[in-house]
Here is the input.
Amino acid sequence: MADEGMTPWKDLALGCAMPEPGSSRRFNTGDWRSRRRPITDREKCIKCGLCWIICPDMAYTPDPKAEGYYNWDGYYCKGCGICVEECPKQAISWQEEKEEDKYGPACGA
Amino acid sequence: MGRRVGLEVSLACAEAVKLCNADVIAAYPITPQTHIVEHLSELVADGHLDAEFVPVESEHSAMSACVGSAAAGARTFTSTSSQGLALMHEILFIASSLRLPIVMAVANRSLSAPISIWNDHSDIMAERDIGWIQTFAENGQEVLDLTIHAFKVAEDSRVNLPVAVNLDGFILTHVIEPMEMPEQVEVDAYLPAYKPSQWLNPAKPISLGMVGMPEVYTEAKKANLEALEGSYPVIKEHWQGFAKAFGRSYQPIETYRSDDADTLFVTMGSLGETCMSAVDQMREDGRSVGQVRIRLWRPFPVDDFLAAIKGAKNLIVIDRALSPGVPAGPVATELRALLYAKGVKPFVANYVAGLGGRDVTRTDFAAMLEETERAAASGQAITCQMVGVKE
Amino acid sequence: MISAAEALKDFQKITPKNIPLVEPFSKGHRACQGCGEVLALRMVAKAVGMDMIAVSATGCMEIISSPYPQTAWEVPWIHVAFENAAAVASGIEAGRKALIRKGRIKDDGAKVVAFAGDGATADIGIQALSGALERGHDFTYVCLDNEAYMNTGIQRSSSTPYGAMTTTSPPGPKSKGQMTWKKNMPMIAAAHNIPYVATASPAWHIDLMNKVKKAVTVPGPAYVHIYSPCPTGWRCGPETSIETARKVVQSRVFPLYEVIDGRFVLSRDIKKPIPVKDYLDTQRRFRHLGEKDIAYIQKRVDDDWDRLLSLVQATNPVAAE
Here is the structure.
């Protein structure tokens, strides 16, 4: 019989609970992007923070090195384009992205 | 030592819950459970029981609220019957799969249609696979005692499973019986406050009730199966503890005059007491007959049952529910399967009696014995016979 | 129990300058690209904070947030079934109430918040919701409304707007799509005389978060109904979710208001509405509608708006001139 189980049954928590909150952080939803990624022109950016608050995937986080600006996290960004659409200064635009650049350091953030 | 009281069994059940210092009762009224939940609301209103009584708007919500309450770490109780139990159906599986120690008193009542408020076991027989520990009480004292024991077992960190205590509707619920009511201090010593193994606690967040992909579902079910099977020694341990604390001893399977009997009646619930009386009568008539009573229905105590029936040539299994199309009653079908698996081969006759509150009398028992002995002698099977059907 | 108005006397508003940074709902969830519902959920979670016990009904948000072993919930979370989020929340609230009163757990001020879609709220779960609201449990119920049973494949719900295409209300020669008007859940909640009801749209995120914060602040039951764009089900581009959530308000199709102790308060008075057609044109689920249908929708939207205004007038004491 094929070994399809992911965890030995004895290792499951009571009631198959997950005691590690936010364990989904491991999952690379950035893999869902197809051929493009959003890129912010900080010259145009007015630091309104809208991109941060309206991202369904929390792909923007405050830049600790530059207050008011936000860093883009390619590990999670699904490429929906809400930020591109909504930026009041059109400071975010699409940039071509090669498949291999979706992973690793070239991913940004 | 407790004090002797004469109390309606429903009220005794409620008193047991009060003695156990339940935290939350979420219930919806349904005949014949009503006196249990009415008395519990009275106890809360009078300040005798410090609990949240949640008058939910349906049984489905009752069990759902119980799941929430138990997950929040509270000692939780509910009660229902028949249609109400059926309405809870989908949540019952979830309660045991999420390993929540809810205690529920089921006032056994027949399932519609036709709508019947009277007693039989069809309601609980439709819930055999829910993964709960299930016991059957025969009299008021047992209802009281099994309820207290239920909390003890359910909340044990080695178990963490919900428990259903079955009591026959009207026949037990609405009858006044003499009982010994334990003292609060005795119950407190036997059953300390509930310490949940895991609960919804912002200081230690867990996610409960996640999506179980095929890669985990089988293992999750295995874990629950092992939990139910593994509860057996804990159930017995806490019955032994109960005997020490309260002086009354309970076994998963009880026997009555069975040692030298050729034929044994097998019963569950209050019918057992009528049967015992019938056995006495038949013994006086020189018949070789005895009785086995199943108190622990889930997890089924296989070894105890086999030990109890050892040496018997014939078993008369009395079902109080039909399992249409099977072709025998639920209890008989399960017993036949386990006997076959163990290579034990008494003659097993199955009778379905007492449906929808119809009385089963000592005359009925005598007739069953008669017919079974004749059939066994002539090699004729009694696969399943409904008792007293007007043709 | 104190009134909502009393409880909100010293309410500390969320402003663009102090949006909570906390993310009780984490990255890596499996929601579709551009999902307006998960965005709304994120905003709700930020407004409530980490002191939350979340209950989810079966639905998109539950599925995308909890594929074992990966949970997006950073707070205690439970999912039981489809129609009982409100009942489970009632049980948690009752359990905690008893435990705190009996001194077995500390009162950590945790808020019980139920999350459910429109199906779980307006249809299969309406009984449990009604019961929980009537019993007055101290909890907040958030309906994330994407206007159909999206998780099972875009089937209609009673919250599906008139004329919308869904897989069980497909337009054809014999049907125009959804043939009934959207069930008004916020009004049904308000009819239970609970202290706080609000409608919100993720296009006005500050308003949304403040309403959620008010809801969890007010003792007793609170109901927040959030319009949640679904690009997958509504057939619109994933980048349009905020724009759609804006137009639905600007066209008066989804008015933003609160009901505080029975008093109706308009959040945005849309004095110059855009035509409903401008809203309907943003999603292909309305593409099959003809002029007459759109005129009918416009009329009903206008009538509903007028009714809302009269409720505002009727429930607010006349201001001294």
User: Anything to note?
Assistant: Chain A has a mean pLDDT of 93. The beta strands of chain A are 36-40, 60-62, 70-72, 92-96. The interface with chain B takes residues 4-10, 12-19, 21 of chain A (CB under 8 Å).
